[in-house]
Amino acid sequence: xxxxxxxxxxxxxxxxxxxxxxxxxxxxxxxxxxxxxxxxxxxxxxxxxxxxxxxxxxxxxxxxxxxxxxxxxxxxxxxxxxxxxxxxxxxxxxxxxxxxxxxxxxxxxxxxxxxxxxxxxxxxxxxxxxxxxxxxxxxxxxxxxxxxxxxxxxxxxxxxxxxxxxxxxxxxxxxxxxxxxxxxxxxxxxxxxxxxxxxxxxxxxxxxxxxxxxxxxxxxxxxxxxxxxxxxx
Amino acid sequence: xxxxxxxxxxxxxxxxxxxxxxxxxxxxxxxxxxxxxxxxxxxxxxxxxxxxxxxxxxxxxxxxxxxxxxxxxxxxxxxxxxxxxxxxxxxxxxxxxxxxxxxxxxxxxxxxxxxxxxxxxxxxxxxxxxxxxxxxxxxxxxxxxxxxxxxxxxxxxxxxxxxxxxxxxxxxxxxxxxxxxxxxxxxxxxxxxxxxxxxxxxxxxxxxxxxxxxxxxxxxxxxxxxxxxxxxxxxxxxxxxxxxxxxxxxxxxxxxxxxxxxxxxxxxxxxxxxxxxxxxxxxxxxxxxx
Lengths: 233, 290
Known about the structure:
The structure holds 2 protein chains of 2 kinds. Chain A is about 40% helix and about 25% strand. Chain A is α/β, with parallel strands linked by helices. Chain A contains 10 helices and 10 strands. The longest helix of chain B is centred in the first third of the chain and has 32 residues, at about 5-35. Chain B has helices at about 5-35, 40-60, 70-90, 95-115, 140-165, 165-175, 180-185, 190-210, 220-235, 240-260, 270-280; strands spanning about 130-135, 140. Chain B has a single domain (about 5-280), classed as Orthogonal Bundle (ABC transporter involved in vitamin B12 uptake, BtuC). By secondary structure, chain B is mainly alpha-helical.
C-alpha cells in the first residue's frame, strides 16, 4: 500500500535521505530500524508531508503523495503517531481524541471514541483532564488513540517505546501486535531492535540515509550484518 | 466620601465601556494566543470598521445594529485575507517581521483614511442615541446598555465556538502544538487565517456597538488599542476569561478615575494598574506561568 522509491529529502541544502526504497503491504507490521541520526524521523516527516522531498516517489494506495500537504496525506489515511507524542497539552483527553478525527473518520467519531476507551481504559478515567498533566505512558496511549481516531489505512508509529518503563514497553509492543491482528497496517519506527523484530513481519535498516539491510524480520534477527549495521561498526 | 448615587452610575458606566474594551481585547488576545502576533493593525482595523458602519448608516440608512452581521463578515474577510495573503507571506516565519508588517499595515490604513476622509470627527444620529434606561440607581444611555449586553453575548458565543466546535479545538490545539496539529490534518495556514479573521470580526461587531454612542476619526483606533493592550496584559496574554475580566476592570477604573481626577485624567488609573500588574504579576490575572 505504501511504496517509496529513491526518496531524497533533508533540510536546506543538506540531504539526510539519499535514495530510500521501502514498501509496506496491507496487513503488515514493517519495522524501520536505525540508530539516532540515521534519518528515521526525516523519512517519517517526509511521508507525513511535514518535510518536502527533494526527489523520488511516494505512492500511497496508488496515489502520488510526494510533496503533498499533511492535511491531504491525513485525508488519504496515512497517519503518524509522532515521536514525543505531540499531544495537545492545553486540551482535554477527550478533545485530543476528537481532534484525531478532525479530517478523517468524523462520521463515526462517537463509535471510535468508545472503541478507544475500550483499548485504553486509562484514558476514559482521565477524560476531562488536560493532556499536559498525563504521565508519559498515558500521553503515548493518547497519541496512539488520537491516531486511531482517524481510522488509519496505515499507521506510522515513531518510537512508541521511547521513555517508557520496561513493563510499559512490553505492553506497548503487545498492543501494537493486537492492533495489527485486528487488521491495521503498521510502519513501526524503532531503536528497540529485538522487540521490534519479534513482532514485525519484515524490516528495513536505515543507515546514513540509505537502506543498508532489509528482509523478513525472522531472518534479520539472525543476521550477523544487522548488529554491525545497526551499531554502525 | 462620595455618595453612592454618584459612585454607582460611574461604575455602571464603566462596565458598559469595559465590555467594549473586552470585546476588542478578545480579538487581540485570540490573535496573540494562536499566532503569537502582536497585531499593531488592530486599532486601524477597528477604525476601518467604524467608517464602514458610519457610511452604511449615512449613505444607505442602515442602522448600525442591523449592520452587525455585515460588519462582522466583512471584517472577518479582511482579517482572513490579510493573514493568509499578506502577513503570513511577508513574515517568512519570523516574529519581528510580523510585528513590522502589522505596524506598517496600520500606518498605511490610517493615512489612507486621512487622505480619503480627512481628520474630521464624525458621529451618527439614531432615534435611540439619547434614550436612557432607568436602572433605579442610574440612568444609562440605551446604546451603552446594548453595547454591554452585545459584547457579553459575543464573548459567550466566542467561548462556545472555542470549546464546542472542531474549529475552536483546532485553534487552541494549534496555539500550543503546531506539529501535532499538522499530523491530525489541520491546515495551519487556514486556521491561522481563521483566527485572525475571527479576531477582526470582533472589531466589526465592536464598531456596530460603539458608533451610536461614539465617534469616528482616522485616529480613533489609538485610544482603544492602547487600552486593549492593557486589558490583554492585565488579563493574561492569550486568556479569554482574562480579557473579559480585564476589560470590565479597566472600564470601571477609567470611569472612577474620571470621577475622582477629572475627565481628562480618567485614563491615568488604567496605566497605573498596567504598571502595577507588570511589576507584581507580569503574567496577568489569569495568564499561564510557563
